[in-house]
Design a protein that fits this description.
Mean pLDDT: 83
Helix content: 40-55%
Order of helices and strands: HHHH
Number of domains: 2
Low-confidence stretches: none
Number of strands: 0
Radius of gyration: 17 Å
C-alpha cells in the first residue's frame, strides 16, 4: 500500500487509519514485524500521518542537481510548492482527474 485517500464526507470517520490498521494486522498475522511507510518530506502532512504510527524516521539523502547551484531539495516551505498547489486547484476537474494519476506516479 503506497498511499490512500478518502472522500471528504467520510474523513471524520478516519477510513485511512482503519485501512492501515487492518493492513498491519494482516502483516502481523503473516509474521511480518517491520513496515516501511516509504519516503516523504519532513514536516509534510504525509510525514505527520506516518509519525503518528510510532515509527522511527530514517533519513535518506535526496540526490539533487541544479544548473544554477540552487538547492533542489523538496520542502513544503518553498514557494514553488504552494504556487503549484494554487495553480492545480484552478485546473478544470476533468483535467485534474486525467492528469493527477499520471503525475502522482512521477512525484518522489
Amino acid at each position: 500500500m503506497t498511499w490512500s485517500s478518502a472522500l471528504r464526507k467520510y474523513r471524520r470517520s478516519r477510513p485511512n487509519m482503519l485501512l492501515y490498521w487492518s493492513f498491519m494486522q494482516r502483516l502481523i498475522g503473516l509474521g511480518i514485524r517491520c513496515f516501511n511507510f516509504g519516503r516523504c518530506t519532513p514536516g509534510s502532512g504525509t510525514h505527520e500521518f506516518k509519525r503518528q504510527w510510532g515509527g522511527a524516521d530514517v533519513p535518506l539523502p535526496w540526490l539533487q542537481w541544479s544548473s544554477q547551484g540552487l538547492s533542489a531539495t523538496p520542502s513544503p516551505e518553498r514557494r514553488v510548492y504552494s504556487l503549484g498547489a494554487a495553480v492545480w486547484r484552478r485546473f478544470p476537474r476533468l483535467l485534474v482527474d486525467r492528469l493527477g494519476p499520471i503525475l502522482a506516479r512521477r512525484i518522489p
